[in-house]
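Journal club prep, shared notes

We agreed each person brings one worked example of a sequence with its structure written out as tokens. Mine is Right handed beta helix domain-containing protein. I'm keeping it raw so we can talk through how to read the token line rather than staring at a rendered picture. Sequence first:
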Amino acid sequence: MNDRIRFLLTFVWLLLAVSIAPGAEYRSHPPQRPLPTPTKGELAVGPKLFVDATRGHDSNAGTEAAPWRSLRYAARKVQPGDTIYLRGGTYYEHVALVRSGTAEAPITIASYPGELAILDGGLREFAEDPAGSWRPLPDGAEGEYISAKSYFDADTRLPPHQFLPGAWEPMWGIEDERPLALGNFADSLVPLHGYRTLKDLRSPNEYWLGNKQEIATIGLYGGPGMWFNRQTGRVHIRLAHNQLAGLGKQAYRGETDPRRVPLIVALGFGANVLRLTGIKHVTIQGLVLRGATGSPLIHVYGSENIELDHLTVYGGFPALLVNATKSLRVTNSAFRGLAAPWTSRAHMKYRGTASYQIVLQNNQPLNDDIELAWCEFTDDHDFAYLRCATNLRFHHNLVDNFNDDGLESGPKLRAHTLFISQNRIGACLIPFSQHEIDKDESPVDHTPETGVFVYRNVIDLRRGTYKSPPKEADATGSYLHEEGHLVGDHGGPTWPVLRFYHNTTLRKTPVFRDYFLFGLGAQGLRNTERDVLNNIFVQAEQVPGAGFAGIKEPGNVRAGGNLLWGLKEGPELAREPFAKFRASPLFIASRKYYEPGLTTHDKVADPKFVAYSVDSPATADLHLQPDSPALNSGLKVPAAWPDPLRDADQAEPDIGAIPHGAPAWGVGVDGRISLFTGEAPVRQSLRD
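Then the structure, token by token:
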């Protein structure tokens, strides 16, 4: 293929993948999230190098007029102070960055202003020549195709880079079931399912049947996806429409012939798309990264002063892996996972790829000074394994649509400092979770003033998650909106020292077992300590936790200044809903840890938000009305605890995430997402 034809094809597919106008028709499925757009700006003042995947050549001088062709080549030529500009187009490469900048002269790799460069670890033929890349499989299932070529090197069985709790590592006895073919539709970037078995890919069944043996016999179709045949080296694909009742607009109704739609297809396991090892003072800006398989898309190891800014990252297991790294900044970036609109937790955990999106690994020295800010983390199985870090700051982010665990803070550690603030945390089955990796890994004591600090967040669980397909027809689609737990664990670990204050947390259905304070007042209190102060907890149905179920003996928890409300039953409660508890031995025992006693400074009352509807989350305004009982009703938190809005309280602290009169901030890339709804963009960037 000559350069002119390649340029034209790349240009066309670039338009399809990232530049389709709003309202355009998609051959596949409408995008789940906004597609990336080029960043604007001027060229850097200092030395500049240029790369162009369509018209460059690595024998050129690397100038704007005579660019290089590959980022891999440019990465070997760059010097401190240089900026490498990638012209718009797709770079089918796996790149290792090996050169460092300095504090005074950092190295920058960026898309050319006004253009969008894509680093793709996949195979270009499936995007550029879909018609020639697939052929029908006559003896397969209806709508099944196989790749025109064999790719035997995909099954090299590289070992995984990381151990992930609750996943398959190592895959004793089932290595042959590891999905080796993953990808996305190129026009919408909606992910394709990575199948473990051919039976599932071919199955006409979409119901979660009564037992695992029945599903193993009949199979479970999980929507458009691929399976790699280790015997023939061929990729099998099927883009059949969903037939499951209740999926509605989440069902796949697009093109079923892969020869008619460009695809991003990545094969194999264990190869990073972008690796930064042992380098310092490097910035990556404005790129799209995609084409990872069951391996890290971006791997940062043993590096220092690294900035990842305005990236859009599709897929990866994980999308970002961080080891032994100091001073990493990830800002204004969008991470999109492996969960398509029709994909449930059961599909990914038991029949596909049980992916984490962000993993911080426990190499030495421990990760330190990590910031994740103004980012969007969406549409995956598990979100972030954050336990292996000190001084981690996670703020102004959107976390939404994770069908299993959210932020994994890990068990109690001696020196554990995570700061989670001013985020919008939406649909997650368990927003805050922890795993036990080793028995007795948690110390009895801990360093004072350390722990996990969670403050000034809006945690809105009302939409629920797609946990599992139904066992029988359900035209209502109620199974798409199952609410999990605010907090939970796996394996019975000692929970971390937790300071949970000034948050607003919302649910529809009753909390699990009616636990006090959405579980924070009852769960995981063995050998740890916890503060739960000045939070708003609202349910649509009964008042959360007023029954005090699950508390057999109080733990070391200090809870006060919290406001609880149930939209339906709140007005019907007795005037003193805590009176029975305060007359019990449990109340007296709680004073051992918190002298006033549990519930003494808590109240049941309508918070009086400016606008709030259970059935219409998009209209929410969680500012407090002037007569809200949450005003001036909180307790003072220790001055050593961080609180960016402490000075916004006019008198005593207001309860909840937003003090009365304080403006709401945007979250996500450039603050473009509403803190209240998680959907409608704010009018402008509301960055501090």
